């Protein structure tokens, strides 16, 4: 096997392995540095505990491979095929997965901090289980425009990640950490975000219709012009959040804390605000038609020109 790793270095350092056939090979614990695996076939390969530093896997075939506990740093996996691979507990820091195929890949508790995953394919096929990213570390990763619909990202770390315009429709993000994440224009309709940390996250123009954010942290988050119609926001912490022109029609906001938040021109038609903390909130020109605010705390709230539940205009 060592002869296949390169004539000049039996440990695989700086070897040219373009197009090499290593299907089903046992490469457990082997160290590779700056190797070129472009278009190589490593399908079904056993790579448990292997170390890859600065390696290039462009268009490599890695389907059904086993990367458990492997360490990859600064590697390129552009257009690589990982379909059905096992990546549990592996570390892929600062790696590039541009347009790679990650369907049916087990990424639970995998480290992908700083990775680029733009255009990566996580798409769930008919009758297949959703992508498993439970506990994955995607801190500061680039996932712009990525399709993660129905994916399981519970307890994932997405701190500072770029998820602009990503599709997370029906995804599970319960207990996930999205602090300071860029979620501008993201699709989170029907998503589960119970007790998720969205503090200081950017959610401008985000689509969160019927999303479940119960008990979540939205402190200082930017939700301007976000769509939260029929969303569950009971008991959320949203102090100082920006919800200008947000759509919260029929949303459940009971016991939510919006103290100091900006809800100017927000739409709260038929919203349920029982015992919500709206102290010091800016509700100027907000639409509260048929909203239940009877037990809400409105001390020092600005309600100038707001449309009240009975249809009158607050003066």
What do these coordinates show?
With 315 residues, the chain is low in regular secondary structure. Helix content is 0%, strand content 4%. It contains no helices and four strands. It has strands at 31-33, 51-53, 71-73, 91-93. The protein is elongated, with a radius of gyration of 24 Å.
Give the topology, please.
Elements: E1 31-33, E2 51-53, E3 71-73, E4 91-93
Parallel strand pairs: 1-2, 2-3, 3-4
Distance between the termini: 82 Å
- Please state how the strands of the largest beta sheet are arranged side by side: 1-2-3-4
**How would you state the average pLDDT, rounded?**
93
The largest sheet, given as strand count, sense and whether it forms a barrel, is: 4 strands, parallel
Distinctive features:
single chain; 315 residues; little secondary structure
Could you provide a short overview of the structure?
With 315 residues, this protein is mostly loops.
